[in-house]
Amino acid sequence: MPRRETPDIYDDLRARLIEGGFAPGRKLKPAELQQDYGCSTNTVRDVLLRLAAEGLAEFRDQRGFRMPERSAQKQHEVAQMRILLEQEGACLSLQYGGIDWEGRLTAVHHKLLHLEKRIRHHENPDSLVAHWLEAEEEFHQTLISACASDTLIGLHRQIYAQFRQQHVAVDRAFAFITENIAQHQAIVDAALEGDPGKVRSRIHAHLERNLSPQHPKVAELARRG
Predict the structure, then answer these.
(1) Domain 72-217 classified CATH 1.20.120.530?
(2) Lowest mean pLDDT: which of 46-50, 60-64, 168-172?
(3) What's the confidence (pLDDT) of residue 214?
(4) Domain ranges of the chain
(5) Which of 183, 191, 202, 224 is deepest in the core (most CB within 10 A)?
């Protein structure tokens, strides 16, 4: 196998961790993975350490690397954090973005809409999954891209990846796609209107299905209510 450069290994392994390439809880052994990439065990270990720092793998001394388990608590927490970051980033983008940002948002939404309509009418959408994941991420990154905060953008990238790892690999039937189409359109409409209140509420409406009623705090509030 041809030797691959470290950035390529990072990108490929990151995608596999996010998109369900490994079962939850599975051990990630550098000695096995290095055979996939034609590199040294130390190179794979360094990449896995970087991905563990991003929350996409787990590392413990003497026990090595593992895929994170999926849990209602983790799913709720990353969804909640993603909502907060996107709401704040989008509202800051309304303030600072201007017409150039509006144009970029409209363009990436057009591409995403095209893919989501194809998925809705496709009997076997598996061939479109990778393209949809890329377009959906690009849309949400563009939504916050004019926020004037590299820290917020970087944190959102990490949380978005953890969200994908916890949620998207679970639902390959795309039962949510029709709802997604309407919600993405509603977010764009609110952004183009320049209405921060609507932007916040529509981002929450788009992602609230991922907030788990099994989360301890949510369950406690439900019992009180």
Answers:
(1) yes
(2) 168-172
(3) 57
(4) 6-66, 72-217
(5) 191
